[in-house]
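Hi R.,

Here's the chain you asked about this morning:
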Amino acid sequence: MSAIRGRVCVRATRHALVLASMLLGLVSVNAQAATVPADFYGVNSDATLANDPVARGAAFKTMRAGGLSVVRVDAYWNSIEPAPPVAGVHAYNWATYDSLVADLARNGLRWYPMLVYSAPWASSVAGDSFAPPAGDANYAAYAAALVQRYGASGSFWAEHPELPKLPTTVYGIWNEPSNQQYWHGPEATPARYMRLYLAARAAIKAVDPGARVAAGGLLDSGVVNANEYLRAMLDSAPTTRNQIDALGWHPYVGNLDQVLSSIKRARTTLNQYGLRNVPIEVSEVGWHSGFSRAERVQWMRRLAARLPHARMNVTRLMPYIWNGDPQWQITNLNGSLGQTGHAYFAGIRDASTRTAKVRPGLNVGRRGTRVRFSGAIVPAVPGARAWLQRKSSAGFVTLRRSGVRPLGNSRSRYRMTIKPRRRTSVYRVLVRPPASSGHARGTSREKRIRTLRGR
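And here is the predicted structure, written out as tokens:
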């Protein structure tokens, strides 16, 4: 888990009116199912849940009910293997993670482990967990042991036939090697990370050929250029870089548009190196309390709704963080789901069932020298706004903007009045859903309307 976080058109109007004539266009909705990859949505959780069986039961139920499939929790090498091997024999302690994985499985969730960090006895800098290991062999052995325990043919599942079998299928190698806080020391280079990744991947694949091994979890931020680091990684291994199964990406770069741009840059870099088929896993992302609550809520919902359909070969989204960090967590301090968490779950629903088209009805009527545009909108789209525009030589010019009012639970309406300047003009009305509504899309129609000003 990372702790650096500075981390920083409804086309409408089609109906004409001569003098006081009135026509009504009904709303049509084209609802379209949107396919989202299996296991796309997850979340980060800190060690609190790993060490608190009472709290995690309720938390895991809430996660699953909200549409999550995986939970990213660090697998600390030092916790699993606190002492060096004796005569080449490794001794591993699985008690903490056995309990965690069992509770995940009971709630229909899979563990997404990050294999972190150096065991102090194995570090290239004595006692420093964030320095690279002194050689690859012991780390690779630990990676293989983790798969032998929790992977597709893991001994844990053989020992617990009463549990739903939900083995670990994806393994992250280290966390944020582009971040000096978690990867430092004389040997902490992109090339050294690439060697460690390839050694761990080979060990994991030897146990479970179908496993996915994710590289990096690279931090991209205002002070860390993850693309430069990625390019250095790939340049260091020209003959083996095609062995990367997936790229973990942590775009802590600002608002939603900047996050999406960061992911697009990663996609572009991979494509340039011939790795077009390597998926991106957004294994961390989020916004700290330095942003307003409204911004955090809106961006989280929009990101969850848009990312599966962004055509950047992104196969996973795991926001930071469920709990354990008051500035970042998507739950309340008491463990209940916070507004950002609710927004995340709403975005998941938006992505799975999206409204492709929302068309407004249209009444056009005359009152004296004024013309009124009004109509019903079905279905109701909370927060939508209507725009009345007139066509000019330079394009459509906005004349009025209006909110919409509810008409029961399933419809809303808009109404706007203007005083025409010309006898004949082309008008259109657009109803624009808010960005937070996910994939609701506005459309528009236009029509030439003839009006007589006065008698």
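One quick note: Residues 205 and 234 are 20 Å apart (CA to CA).

Cheers,
M.
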